[in-house]
Design brief:
Radius of gyration: 20 Å
Order of helices and strands: HHHHHHH
Number of helices: 7
Number of strands: 0
Helix content: 55-70%
Strand content: under 5%
Structural class: mainly alpha
Number of domains: 1
Distance between the termini: 66 Å
Largest sheet: none
Length: 166
């Protein structure tokens, strides 16, 4: 049971997103193994699972981006922090989410390498799922530094003017 506490650490915020991320990762891993062993009968199921996880990951990424836009009025949010949880999440959460992403990438590449030119290639799309849920965690629970007040940046020139003094 110790490995379960590392994958979904107790007492952290957003455990529902961590559980969902690992559930999708395990379902995909099981499907990829089955497709590698039985490529013809599993062609449609692996395609359906891969495309469903891709769609869920895209939705999560868009939701995270929209939420990050709202929060960016008051906080400094970078792409690395939002989607890769760099500096905005506890180490255990970042480890868990990035481990799920790593498992998805490795399983997808291994399955597509063992069975090239088959439906296993759909698995290459799956890592968007873990990345999207990681972004959703960052947008919902991540801690980012506050945006500096306008008074601290008044002395700077407007970067959109490109040096034009009109």
């Amino acid at each position: 049971m110790a490995w379960r506490h590392r994958l979904v650490p107790p007492g952290v915020e957003g455990r529902d997103l961590l559980r969902a991320c690992w559930a999708g990762t395990w379902v995909f891993t099981a499907m990829a193994v089955a497709t590698t062993v039985f490529p013809d009968p599993m062609a449609v199921p692996i395609a359906v699972v891969s495309l469903a996880l891709l769609a869920l990951g895209c939705w999560a990424m868009l939701w995270a981006f929209q939420r990050a836009l709202q929060r960016s009025r008051y906080e400094l949010i970078g792409v690395g922090g939002l989607y890769f949880l760099a500096g905005c999440a506890p180490r255990s959460v970042r480890f868990s989410m990035m481990a799920a992403l790593g498992v998805e990438v490795i399983v997808a590449l291994a399955a597509a390498s063992v069975r090239p030119f088959t439906a296993s290639a759909f698995g290459i799309l799956v890592p968007v799922y873990a990345l999207g849920l990681s972004g959703a965690w960052g947008a919902r629970h991540g801690t980012f530094p506050p945006r500096p007040s306008d008074s601290t940046i008044q002395g700077r020139s407007d970067p959109s003017r490109n040096g034009d003094d009109v």
